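Here's what a typical entry looks like (Exodeoxyribonuclease 7 small subunit):
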Amino acid sequence: MTSPSTPKKTPPSARAGAASDVAASYEAALEELEQLVAQLDAGQLPLDQLLTRYQRGAELLAFCRSRLEAVENQIKVLEGGELKPWDAA
């Protein structure tokens, strides 16, 4: 006999290593975030979908920020502890 209750899914933010589960890469997260912003800006979604997409966007934004911070820290190490301005020219 099986139990009548089914196990509940743990939300991504509550899982260990959640940041790596959010997106495959910074670029993928940024692309999805841009799509979500376009959907939210269109204003054509029902309220519950707006909330769900807003929450997903917040997860993606946190993921992107953490990836950028990690890269910045790596650059500081490579530059001997001093972050130098980027010269893209």
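The helical segments are 18-22, 26-42, 47-78.

More examples are in the samples folder.
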